[in-house]
Design goal:
This protein is of the alpha/beta class. The protein is built from 14 helices and 29 strands. The protein binds zinc ion (ZN).
């Protein structure tokens, strides 16, 4: 056991106090939608002075390393499967109430981790979106190089509306290294650059600057082809980081993005033997990262944060939302006609556990009809709309109101039942290559929205468990604080001060949880949906949301 080891637990003790803050938060959460009721308001003001405590950056670490395990659920952190991560937790802080940004997808959370911004602010609200400026008839992948380049060209360098950690650190003269086995790593540090740059980005085998690739492939061979699991790509990418990218010296900030266990969980479901083996492989890669820091004598001066982008669920049923709408008489499809959308067209862009719907001409009458049709479907979880529609929340309520956001966002229905692999959390999935029993994410299920986060190093408390809500949007501001940089652009997230060993050790901030509800009465039934979130100092963490259609008891001779 480490000297100074102590168990510290912060609990967000919930005290029922429905009086003090009601109007403030109704205005903040649901402007202009009379159908939304704020039914519960709990507040837990532990230390009222907390919000007035401001401490200057920075931590004592000279280096920060963030390791992302794509799709890692917190309940799969076990001594048997992840001994290295468990040992790291013993030396550091386990964030036991950590949240993905909604929608719980890779590109969304990659951007949230990189910028500390809500998806609505950064501009990336899904892996696949319809961006008519790039393609007038089809969806695009938000992490694709061509889309990123064109996006920056159109917007004068603001494809992402918020700066990333790597960009900010380099503007302060620090070196950075990004290494990702998936394309999402591009979003962390996307600018074209010369060899003289202080930052390298290795994303899915490609590099910025391009010339860096020669050294890496000379040592490691070509980036491996995709196979049944992503472990070979993860191994190659990790070796590139701890090898050539760290050879001269370790940059102030490094990020390693492993594609597992996401890949295996999609193919075989969370909790399967293949998925557990992939988690073990991620743990071995973490062990090699820590060993490299040890060898370089940097372990004691490096803060290491292990985090996942989102949780995971098992597919209960696959549905084709476009086909369902078509069967109900709508002109719905997966793309618009080549000549552009015609009146009445609806484009459905599936993202697994969340579906984006774009209505031609933003026809509000048609939008409401589509929403009310979806409310009659068993696969429907939570609906969000840009403009008010009865029984739906606003896009802003989930902080997904980006400039390019669709007219309707549908989070798919979920339940907490166990899969055949014994993993709780089943979800409907739209139009996926994966079938029932395979894995999916993207929804507002708590199994998708809660993800793993463990941090250790000179600036983190030892053997502590943080039960306060935290989220991926907090990682960027915390990393910047650790490295002594105050960002000009205010992030959405917060510095996770309660987990830090800072002088003075500020008290835990106040925490509140609340629940939004909306309903819509049709002729024979009533739609109900809810969204639960936690708040600390104005930072929102979405816990879960779901919906159900209830037959009306007051009609039809029942
Ligand atoms: Zn992912």
């Amino acid at each position: 056991m480490d000297p100074g080891y102590s168990l510290v637990t912060f609990r967000s003790r919930v005290v029922n106090n429905p009086v003090s803050l009601t109007f403030l938060h109704i205005n903040q959460l649901s402007p202009g939608n009379a159908m939304i009721r704020l039914v519960k308001l709990f507040t837990a003001v532990l230390f009222t002075l907390a919000s007035t405590v401001t401490l200057p950056a920075a931590g004592t670490a000279t280096h920060v390393v963030v390791v992302v395990w794509d799709g890692m659920r917190p309940d799969f952190v076990t001594l048997a499967t992840t001994p290295t991560l468990c040992n790291l937790a013993k030396r550091g802080v386990t964030f036991r109430n950590h949240h993905a940004a909604y929608p719980s997808m890779t590109e969304v959370n990659g951007t949230a981790l990189a910028t500390g911004a809500y998806p609505g602010e950064s501009g990336i609200i899904a892996n696949r979106e319809f961006r008519p400026a790039f393609n007038a008839s089809k969806r695009v992948g938000t992490e694709e190089l061509a889309v990123v380049r064109e996006g920056d060209e159109i917007t004068g360098g603001h494809y992402l509306n918020s700066p990333t950690v790597a960009e900010i650190l380099r503007s302060h003269g620090m070196r950075t290294a990004i290494a990702g086995a998936k394309g999402v790593a591009l979003l962390h540090d996307r600018a074209a650059r010369s060899e003289a740059s202080e930052g390298v980005n290795l994303y899915a085998g490609s590099t910025l600057p391009e010339s860096s690739a020669n050294v890496i492939t000379g040592l490691l061979g070509q980036f491996p082809a995709a196979d049944w699991t992503g472990t070979n790509r993860d191994l190659w990418t990790r070796r590139a980081l701890t090898g050539p990218l760290w050879e001269q010296d370790v940059p102030a900030f490094s990020l390693l993005w492993l594609s597992e266990p996401d890949h295996s969980q999609h193919e075989t479901g969370p909790g399967s033997p293949t998925s557990l083996a992939a988690i073990k492989h991620a743990d071995q890669n973490l062990a090699q990262v820590l060993a490299a820091l040890d060898q370089k004598g940097l372990r004691d001066t490096t803060d290491v944060i292990v985090v996942s982008d989102h949780g995971f669920s098992t597919i209960d049923q696959n549905v084709d939302v476009a086909a369902v709408l078509t069967a109900q008489g709508f002109h719905a499809g997966r793309e618009f006609p080549r000549g552009g959308a015609r009146g009445g067209d609806v484009m459905v862009v599936g993202n697994g556990g969340t579906v984006l719907l774009y209505v031609a001409g933003h026809d509000q009458t048609l939008i409401a009809k589509v929403v009310h049709c979806l409310q009659t479907q068993t696969f429907c979880g939570v609906l969000f709309t840009r403009e008010p529609v009865e029984g739906a929340f606003r896009l802003h309520d989930a902080r997904i109101d980006s400039p390019a956001a669709p007219d309707i966002v549908l989070a798919m229905h979920w339940k907490a039942d166990e899969s055949t692999n014994g993993a709780p959390g089943l979800v409907y999935s739209d139009y996926s290559q994966y079938g029932p029993g395979c894995g999916m994410h993207g929804s507002l299920s708590p199994f998708d929205m809660h993800n793993a986060c463990i941090a250790a190093g000179p600036d983190f408390r030892k053997g502590a468990q943080d039960d306060l809500p935290s989220g991926n949007i907090d990682i960027a501001p915390t990393v910047l604080w650790l490295l002594g940089v105050v960002p000009e652009h205010k992030p959405s997230g917060r510095v996770l001060r309660e987990a830090l060993t800072q002088p003075g050790n500020s008290p835990p901030p106040p925490c509140e949880t609340r629940r939004l509800e909306a309903s819509f009465r049709s002729i024979d039934s009533t739609w109900h949906q809810y969204l639960e979130c936690s708040e600390i100092n104005g930072v929102l963490y979405f816990d879960q949301g779901n919906g159900v259609l209830v037959p009306r008891q007051d009609i039809g001779g029942n």
